[in-house]
Specification:
This protein is mainly β. It has one domain: glutathione-dependent formaldehyde- activating enzyme (gfa). 10% of the residues lie in helices and 31% in strands. Strands 6-7-8-9-4-3-10 form a seven-stranded mixed β-sheet. A three-stranded antiparallel β-sheet has the order 1-2-5, with no helix packed on it. A hairpin with a 6-residue loop joins strand 8 and strand 9. The termini are far apart.
Length: 147
């Protein structure tokens, strides 16, 4: 089974060779807000080995020294997010999936930057960025490339 999607203009298409996406979530952090131009990023993942770009490939922007975000260079559609760790999942934007219904949100991240008037997934658990010592350690050396 493959879960498919792509950009607005069709120049970039992907297939996730999985039965179900992993860790569908929204992230309210400022980096995700700026990267998508929206109030949050909605993302769903799979292992890198399960991901295939079936038509074209996204352009990449290193939004920090820890991660890259993929987008269509022709139409600008935000398509992916991945940390620069080989074992890390790759996430696609849920809105770019051919069937977004396959990615029901399970958690929210970046609650510290959630816009106060956003009423969305009120019953979905969430986390503030860097709440745990392990995550604090990971983000300690992060340098944002966004302005």
């Amino acid at each position: 089974m493959a879960i498919t999607g792509g950009c607005q203009c069709g120049a970039v298409r992907y297939a996730m060779h999985v039965e179900r996406v992993e860790k569908p979530h929204v992230c309210h952090c400022r980096m995700c807000q700026k990267a998508t131009g929206g109030l949050f990023a909605a993302l769903a993942g799979c292992s890198r080995a399960s991901m295939e770009w079936t038509c074209g490939e996204p352009a990449l922007f290193a939004s920090s020294n820890l991660a890259k975000r993929g987008f269509c260079r022709d139409c600008g559609t935000p398509l992916s997010f991945a940390y620069d760790k080989p074992e890390a999942r790759i996430y696609v934007t849920i809105g770019s999936m051919d069937d977004p219904e396959l990615a029901g949100i399970e958690i929210q991240y970046g609650l510290e930057a959630r816009v106060s008037w956003v009423r969305f997934c009120e019953d979905v658990p969430g986390e503030v960025t860097g709440e745990s010592p392990a995550v604090q350690g990971f983000f300690a050396g992060m340098v944002s490339n966004q302005t």
